[in-house]
Structures are given as C-alpha cells and as structure tokens.
Amino acid sequence: MKFFLTIYICSVLTQQCAEVPIDKHDYKRFHGTHYGCVQKGLGESYAILFDGDVFAADQVEALELYARYSCEKVTNYQENAPTETIPPESKNL
Q1: Does residue 53 belong to any structural domain of this protein?
Q2: Does some domain include residue 92?
Q3: Cα–Cα distance measured from residue 63 to residue 12, given in angstroms and rounded to the nearest whole number
Q4: How many helices (H) and strands (E) does the chain have?
Q5: Cα distance between residue 12 and residue 3, in whole Å
Q6: Beta bridge partners of 30
C-alpha cells in the first residue's frame, strides 16, 4: 500500500486552493507510509511557501497564502506498472 501526496496552496483572500504545478515545484508523490507522506507534505509545503523559489514573501503576505496537503491511501499501486497498454494477443505483428 502507498500514500499519494497532493499539495495545495490556498489564499485566505480568495477562499480558493490550487495544486502546485510540477514545473514550479516537483516533489515525490508516492510514499510507503502515512508517516512518511505527512512528513514530506509538511516539509515540501514549507519549502514552497518560504524558500522563495515559487513565491516571494510579499506574495505570501499580500495574498495571505497558506499550504494544505493530503495523503490519500492508494491500494492498487504497482511499483513497476507495465508501460504497454495493448494486450500481447491483440497486437498486429
């Protein structure tokens, strides 16, 4: 079983949240334990808001930004999922 981490950045002013785009801040999404997922969620959320790479301090202040994250249990996760989606018997050779 794995846990899927999703980080959202929310604004108190607009009452809206959005996922952080991968091109702005990429982070590991699958974790082996709930503990590890929560730990990474907290650390990555902090980095997104305070490292200055995604948001400047004045943006965080002006938009009253805060982080929210979730760790969703994934029961059908496959470590090495097949890359081929066409069953072998139906291929045209």
Answers
A1: yes
A2: no
A3: 7
A4: 2, 4
A5: 28
A6: 4
Q: What is the DSSP letter of 29?
A: -
**CA–CA distance from 64 to each of 7, 18, 19, 23, 56 (Å)?**
17, 14, 16, 23, 12
Please give the residue range of the domain that contains residue 22. Answer: 2-76
pLDDT tens track for 16-66:
999 988 888 999 999 999 999 999 999 999 999 999 999 999 999 999 999
Length of the chain: 93
| pTM score, whole prediction | 0.77
Q: Which two tokens stand for residue 13?
A: 């002013």
- Total domains in the chain come to 1
What's the CA gap between 60 and 66, in Å, rounded? 8
